[in-house]
């Protein structure tokens, strides 16, 4: 008797992403709320993209458009949709001074009839797009910089091409068995799971730290024949081929960087897309793939390198520039650097010149 009023009921997490962002902002008395609102807008864009992703199979949105993007890849319809949703969500808010996307050669200026803002937004609207038609996980990546050129006007290429160490915030969304948004404003990494029944991102993974030792390594093994000696030796080391005292790491690779990165962030491990004979600078792009993930990795106690040093220290030269990527548990990434130093000196010297 009377128990029902005091009995514990099981409530879902009531920490919405809005509440979390506001709480973090509250720790900074000088904050204006502009970044908070920009992050809201990103979360809303993510919900719209998530809705289309889950409907893709039934909504006749599957399949390639006839257009090719700047890298000569077939653009998928969802790429186009995601690209436009993100742009339109942010082109009129007065919070962004310029945008850039994987899907466009040039900068995306704020339309003339809208007021430009203080932040720079760079994004990969759909990452892992080759997975769309086979119903495997895909993602979206966001990088946010401050405007550094003087004045209140529109942003320029100089505002977009900043080192990752200057990022104000980075986020990714993974459209998997559930949709998650993971973000950092430089105060830890926090993950939210979308509850589609109420349309809210709810805090599910506070303060993500990469566990050690790492469990997985993720690399496209099909490119083995193009690998340098350093990469071959490093991958053999991960497999503990010549070391009976060590167990090998398990291999997982889906070809969707966000999905591979996210798994390895939660389980520990290393993701690599190295340079090889056919791809002298690797495949992944610095500004909207490597930098934001390197920022999040660092905040989670992990490390991201181009094979020589910290990706966050690289000054981009070009919006669509590629970069070799090694990210995950620091000890694994440093091991990769060590193998490159030992076996790939000539390649490193060449690469260092254009780095
Ligand atoms: P995107 O779909 O944005 O072009 O990116 C695809 C990238 C990345 O997500 C993934 O890690 C990599 O391409 C996979 O490349 P491979 O198929 O060569 O392994
Ligand atoms: Mn991508
Ligand atoms: Mn993409």
Task: Provide structural commentary.
The protein has 355 residues and is α+β, with helices and mostly antiparallel strands. 32% of the residues lie in helices and 21% in strands. It contains 10 helices and 15 strands. Strand 1 and strand 2 form a beta hairpin. The model has no long low-confidence stretch (mean pLDDT 93). One manganese (II) ion (MN) binds at residues 102, 124, 126-127, 129. One manganese (II) ion binds next to strand 5.
Each distinct ligand = 2,5-anhydro-1,6-di-O-phosphono-D-glucitol, manganese (II) ion
Share of helix among residues? 25-40%
What is the general shape?
globular
Radius of gyration: 21 Å
The ordered string of helix (H) and strand (E) elements is: HHHEEHEEEEHEEEEEHEHEHEEHH
Widest β-sheet, arrangement of strands: 4-3-5-6-7-8-9-10
What's the total count of β strands? 15
Mean pLDDT: 93
User: Regions with pLDDT < 50 over 5+ consecutive residues?
Assistant: none
**What is the beta-strand fraction?**
15-25%
Kindly name the structural category: alpha+beta
Give a short account of the largest sheet.
Answer: 8 strands, mixed
Provide key terms for this protein.
15 strands; binds manganese (II) ion; binds 2,5-anhydro-1,6-di-O-phosphono-D-glucitol
């Amino acid at each position: 008797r009377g128990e029902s009023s005091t009995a514990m009921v099981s409530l879902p997490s009531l920490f919405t992403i809005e509440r979390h962002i506001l709480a973090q902002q509250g720790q900074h008395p000088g904050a204006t709320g502009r970044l908070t609102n920009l992050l809201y807008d990103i979360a809303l864009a993510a919900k719209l993209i998530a809705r289309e992703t889950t409907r893709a199979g039934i909504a006749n949105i599957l399949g390639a458009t006839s257009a090719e993007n700047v890298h000569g890849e077939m653009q998928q319809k969802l790429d186009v949709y995601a690209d436009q949703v993100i742009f339109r969500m942010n082109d009129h808010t007065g919070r962004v001074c310029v945008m850039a996307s994987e899907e466009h050669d040039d900068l995306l200026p704020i339309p003339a009839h809208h007021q430009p803002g203080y932040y720079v937004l760079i994004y990969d609207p759909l990452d892992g797009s080759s997975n769309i038609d086979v119903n495997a996980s895909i993602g979206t990546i966001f990088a946010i910089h401050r405007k550094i050129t003087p004045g209140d006007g529109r942003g320029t290429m100089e505002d977009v091409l900043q080192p990752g160490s200057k990022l104000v915030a980075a986020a990714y969304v993974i459209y998997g068995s559930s949709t998650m948004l993971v973000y950092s404003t430089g105060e830890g990494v926090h993950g939210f799971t979308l509850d589609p029944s109420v349309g809210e991102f709810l805090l599910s993974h506070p303060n993500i730290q990469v566990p050690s030792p790492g469990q997985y390594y993720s690399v496209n093994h099909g490119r083995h024949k193009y690998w340098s000696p350093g990469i071959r030796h490093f991958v053999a080391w991960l497999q503990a081929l010549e070391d009976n005292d060590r167990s090998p790491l398990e291999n997982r690779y889906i070809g969707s960087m966000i999905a591979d990165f996210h798994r390895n962030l939660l389980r520990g491990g290393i993701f690599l897309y190295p340079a090889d004979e056919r791809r002298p600078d690797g495949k992944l792009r610095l500004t909207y793939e490597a930098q934001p993930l390197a920022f999040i990795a660092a905040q989670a106690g992990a490390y991201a390198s181009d094979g020589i040093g910290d990706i966050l220290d690289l000054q981009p030269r070009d919006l669509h520039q590629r970069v070799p990527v090694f990210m995950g548990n620091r000890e694994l990434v440093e091991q990769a650097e060590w193998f490159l130093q030992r076996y790939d000196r000539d390649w490193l010297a060449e690469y260092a010149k254009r780095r």
